[in-house]
Predict the structure.
Amino acid sequence: MSRLGNISGKAAVKVFQKLGWVKVGQVGSHVVMTKEGMRVNLSIPQHKELSVGTLRALIRNAGLSVDEFMKLVK
């Protein structure tokens, strides 16, 4: 399993966009993303570094594994 950490909110948004998620707006410091066919919205905080638990929850809600997500981070 890949190690999570040191990923900014901005980088996470870019990865989710590669996977077909679309920005629908921003509420405060959180970018809200949606994807057709998914029942959940992702609310991604725009912090310099996301906590491991927050990032893991976003990945799980998007229906991905940590390894799938980490392959797209660059």
About this structure: The two ends are 17 Å apart (CA to CA). The helical segments are 9-18, 52-61, 66-72. The first strand starts at residue 22 and ends at 27.
